[in-house]
Structure formats: structure tokens, C-alpha cells
Amino acid sequence: MTDAVISPDADLVGALKALANPVRLQLLVWLREPERHFSQYEAIADPVEVGVCVSHIQAKAGLAQSTVSAYMAELQRAGLVRATRVGKWTHYKRDEERIAELVAQLGQTL
């Protein structure tokens, strides 16, 4: 009897790659409780409903805007966050439904 090689789902692999970076993982942790982690910033939109402004994420992380934008784009491609434009600013919010799906899929895969 031979063991079949099972290729993991590409979406799951992409999400795991995005989470492998400790800074991106920290950003997701902060976005889980935006009112707690971003309360010192004046929001132009509801951080729970709309998300957190990328400039506030950048200020908290202490990283260059281009670095934070690249990290958030990677999280968005992995389906872990959603982006919403409010005026000229991009706000990011965790995609809790997709995160739950990925966690379940990981449990089934492993």
C-alpha cells in the first residue's frame, strides 16, 4: 500500500506564510481588539466596524509606511484582513469568518 501525497490547499499555505512573519502576526493580534490597541489615535471611522487606519497601524508599529502597507497587503492577499477606503485613507479589519475557516481547515489538514 502506498501513501498518497496530499497537497495542502494553496489558500491555507498562503495564510500560514503570512502568519510566519512575527510582525504580521502582531498586527493581527492588535486588530483583534482595535479599541484596546488603537484607543490613543483619533479615528475617522469606527475601528470595530470599518477597521483601523493604516497610518495608526504604522504609528503603533513604528515602521515605515511602505513596510506596513506591504505587510497589510500580504495579510489581505492571504484573506486574513479586509481593506476599506475612507476618503484617502485605507482601514484594515480582520476577516473573522475567513480566519475561522482557515483554523478549521488547518485542524482538518493536520
TrEMBL record:
Keyword set includes Cell inner membrane: no
InterPro entries documented for this protein: ArsR-like_HTH, HTH_ArsR_DNA-bd_dom, HTH_MetalResp_TranReg, WH-like_DNA-bd_sf, WH_DNA-bd_sf
Domain HTH arsR-type: 6-110
MF (Gene Ontology): DNA binding; DNA-binding transcription factor activity
Keywords per UniProt: DNA-binding, Transcription, Transcription regulation
Name under which the protein is recorded: Transcriptional regulator
